[in-house]
Amino acid sequence: MPSADALQARRSLTISMVDGALYAVMIGVGESYLGALAVELGHRDGALALLVTVPLLVGALAQLASAPLVDLVGSRRRVVVLGAAMQAACHLGLYLIVALQVTQLWPLLLVKSAFWASGSAIGPAWNAWMATLTEGISRERYFAWRSALIYLVLLVTYVGSGLFLEARRELGALLPAYGALLLVGLGARALSAGALSLKSEPPEPPLAGAERSLRGRARLALTTSEWRVAVFLALFMFGVFLSAAFFTPYMLRTLGMDMATYAGLTAGSILSRAIAFPLMRPLAARIGLRGLLAASGFGVALVPLGWALTADLWLLLGIELLSGVVWAGVEFSSFQVLLQSAHPRCRVEFFSLANALSAALQLAGSLVGSAVLAWTHLAYTDVFLISSAVRMGSLLLLVTPAMAIALRRPLVQLFVRINSVRAVAGVDHRPVVSARPLEAPAVDGVDESTNEHQPR
């Protein structure tokens, strides 16, 4: 007969499925359309660049606050519930911006940054919490089913929201439609916070020695981790974000797409990524992480080239389907290498610092892209071509001997969480790793106990 603790853990994992579905509703109806909302509110290229990248940078830095927050409030569950409640409150702020038709940049930038910061700050705490709840079960099976549910809800709500927005646009009520969706997102995240509060929290042994100190773990991450791949990926993302902020205005303003078409187009990349991501492990086992990263990175470099060369809807859909596949390859291979580049006792800090470096260069890329549009006579398509060239150029780093050694890694089982939906790359997966290793058997000659990437 299962123990009381086992029954509690099983009940909590069932509740976590509900929480995941509600989280997907929030992403599908709200966060996914903030770029299109910004376009509707009249924000231009420079503002759109800031709205895409500043929240990413704030969120990357906010991850470093997770451990101190847990120490402050005394519970991982309290931190996660508080962060979820703050995300729900951010939806209220977004709703007020829409309802009052606020066209200034700073309120939208502030609320969106707060939304990302609260979501990112709870990531490591959520991961460590789930790691203890899933001890003794097949994590791969559980998170496979949880991810499948999240993807299904995400696709339905994302496409449904696009159809709803288009129907309301034809009636001349697009902004009220955005407001209605944000209220749905608020309700979904509030219910999600309630579900999270019902989950049990198994005790976690305290860290010892220098591991108790955030500064000590950050110093350990800087001095003992492998940074070659992190630097390459940051430069690669600089090239990506030269054009990332301008996909939405190009499709909606320049090509004149309606919201239903836009949603259907970007949903293609979500679907293809969902299908392709699980297939990357056997592919990497066959051609190696270096081969997978180079091939998929080359594919990502071709995506903006495709945007620039065609306005045909069916060709654009094919490009988005390709985009989902190649981004899945980049994410799988880069997560794998980054995961093993960090010292086992400071993975949270390593990923936070690596994400901060990447986010800083993403911000720089967006600002450079917007400056090119503002100070020259170049069009969106010209910026897409520049972005493609910069992405291609960064791939040359993969041919260096040091990078070749860094990418010669054995494979581990990989879990990720869904963080958001980006029109330029489908679903945004984020690695969230536990601050301490867990007891688990080795797979493929690699100890997986510290390598948990949970879907969220």
Describe the structure.
- This protein is mainly alpha-helical and 456 residues long.
- It has a single domain (4-202, 212-450), classed as MFS general substrate transporter like domains (Growth Hormone, Chain: A, Up-down Bundle).
- Helix content is 72%, strand content 3%.
- The protein has 18 helices and four strands.
- It has helices spanning 4-29, 34-40, 45-62, 66-73, 76-99, 105-121, 123-133, 139-170, 174-197, 214-224, 228-241, 247-254, 259-276, 280-309, 313-341, 347-375, 380-394, 401-406; strands at residues 417-422, 426-430, 442-443, 446-447.
- The strands form two sheets. It has a two-stranded antiparallel ribbon with strand order 1-2. It has a two-stranded antiparallel sheet with strand order 3-4.
- Strand 3 (442-443) and strand 4 form a beta hairpin.
- The longest helix is centred in the middle third of the chain and has 32 residues, at 139-170.
- The chain is globular and about 65 Å long.
Average predicted confidence as pLDDT: 83
What does the radius of gyration come to?
A: 21 Å
Strand order of the largest sheet: 1-2
CATH fold annotation: Growth Hormone, Chain: A
The CATH class is Mainly Alpha
H/E topology pattern: HHHHHHHHHHHHHHHHHHEEEE
User: End-to-end span in angstroms?
Assistant: 31 Å
User: Tell me, what's the shape?
Assistant: globular
Query: Given the helix and strand composition, which structural class is it?
Result: mainly alpha
Number of helices: 18
Number of strands: 4
Helical content stands at over 70%
Named CATH architecture = Up-down Bundle
In CATH, the homologous superfamily goes by the name MFS general substrate transporter like domains
Count of structural domains? 1
User: How big a fraction of the residues is strand?
Assistant: under 5%
Poorly predicted regions are 434-456
Biggest sheet architecture: 2 strands, antiparallel
